[in-house]
Amino acid sequence: MAENGYLTVRVYTSSAQLPIEGATVTVTQPTPNGTRLLATRITDRSGNIEPIAIEAPNRSESQQAGVRTPFTSVDITADYPNYERVMVENAQIFSGVLSQQNLELIPIEERPEVWNMTEIFNVPSQNL
């Protein structure tokens, strides 16, 4: 039986980690038929979104070898005008765990050649 894991996202810019208020955060899940939208949120003045509940496999299912993957994989995208879009693929959500994803956005004026690009980070599956 599935349970919930939780995801929160923090969006900021520069190595000083200045929060970005008003960034759009989209969480999707790959499916055999394409992609399923799980949530879209807007960051607050601290650059955070409220936690999103995401269905994840029951923790007890990960106690035995050969049982399905004990987490749910999601993709997280952050957009904000005049900043490079960032996407994290295959972020892992575990039942009963609050996962936080930090996303640093780079102003386009620092890298004008990327005005229409998405920076993608792929999280490899954990060896559990």
In total, the number of strands is 9
Q: Helix proportion of residues, in percent?
A: under 10%
Biggest sheet strand order reads 4-3-6-7-9
Strand content: over 45%
Largest sheet: number of strands, sense, barrel closure: 5 strands, mixed
Mean pLDDT: 86
Q: DSSP helix count?
A: 0
Give the SSE order as H and E letters.
EEEEEEEEE
Poorly predicted runs of 5 or more residues: none
The value of Rg in angstroms is: 16 Å
Structural class: mainly beta
Describe the structure.
- Helices cover about 0% and strands about 50% of the residues.
- The chain has strands at about 5-15, 20, 25-30, 35-40, 50-55, 70-80, 85-95, 100-105, 120.
- A hairpin with a 4-residue loop joins strand 1 and strand 2 (about 20).
- The chain is elongated and about 50 Å long.
- With about 130 residues, the chain is an all-beta fold.
Could you name the key traits of this structure?
5-stranded mixed β-sheet; 4-stranded mixed β-sheet; 9 strands
Summarize the structure.
Helices cover 0% and strands 51% of the residues. The protein is an all-beta fold. The protein is elongated.
